[in-house]
Write a structure and sequence with these properties.
By secondary structure, the chain is α+β, with helices and mostly antiparallel strands. The chain has a single domain, classed as GAF domain (Beta-Lactamase, 2-Layer Sandwich). It has five helices and six strands. A six-stranded antiparallel β-sheet has the order 3-2-1-6-5-4, sandwiched between helices. Helix 1 packs antiparallel against helix 5. The longest helix is centred in the C-terminal third of the chain and has 45 residues.
Length: 200
């Protein structure tokens, strides 16, 4: 590739990178709305906590976006050996009323957060445009030593449907961030081929 063609390619990549960065800045999701649902759902379902998890499509891990008494990204769970991870992997809701009798990621999180899980209901969040599972919503510990039932699952599935665009925006934002990083590497390599540093 001659110098002019290489410079043109660099300029094209920079223009695409700029477009992606603008899209990335716009796709921040509605954090206040997600936090509102995290606060309301435990009351609506007579439970102790609610958490919204997002799948990171870059490293295939699952992290907490919003949760009762927790900060964003303060919890990361494995996709293979956690209740949330299984829901995201299989795309199927799970009701588990005997968490205390099982060993798993919830025990590790209990040590870190001081919150023990007795029971849980968790549903997947489907992407609107990606046709992929983008996250999951989980409600923990029915009050009064009660158990979660199919009606609780249906309620949570309705919430997942209402929030799917917001959670997909967060999911896509991570992919956009990865694209920006990859394009930046390509631009730097091409500029190095030209024997020039980054343009000022």
């Amino acid at each position: 590739m001659d110098r002019v063609a290489l410079e043109n390619r660099i300029n094209e990549l920079k223009a695409k990178q700029d477009t992606i960065e603008k899209a990335w800045r716009k796709r921040d999701g509605n954090n206040e709305l997600l936090q509102f649902f995290v606060e309301v759902m435990p009351k609506a379902m007579d439970a102790e906590r609610c958490s919204i998890f997002v799948l990171d499509p870059v490293n295939d891990k699952v992290w907490l976006h919003s949760g009762t008494g927790l900060t964003e990204r303060s919890v990361e769970v494995p996709k293979s050996s956690s209740l949330v991870g299984r829901v995201i992997s299989d795309g199927q809701a799970i009701i588990e009323n005997e968490m205390e009798a099982q060993v798993g990621a919830h025990d590790v999180i209990a040590v870190r957060t001081g919150f023990s899980v007795r029971n849980a209901v968790c549903v997947p969040v489907h992407g609107v445009t990606t046709q992929r599972i983008t996250g999951a919503i989980q409600v923990l510990n029915k009050r009064g030593r009660g158990t979660f039932e199919s009606d609780d699952q249906k309620t949570l599935e309705k919430l997942a449907f209402l929030l799917q665009m917001n959670i997909e925006n967060i999911f896509l934002r991570q992919e956009l961030g990865r694209l920006i990083t990859e394009m930046d590497k390509q631009i730097k390599m091409m500029e190095k081929q030209l024997g020039q540093g980054p343009s000022s």
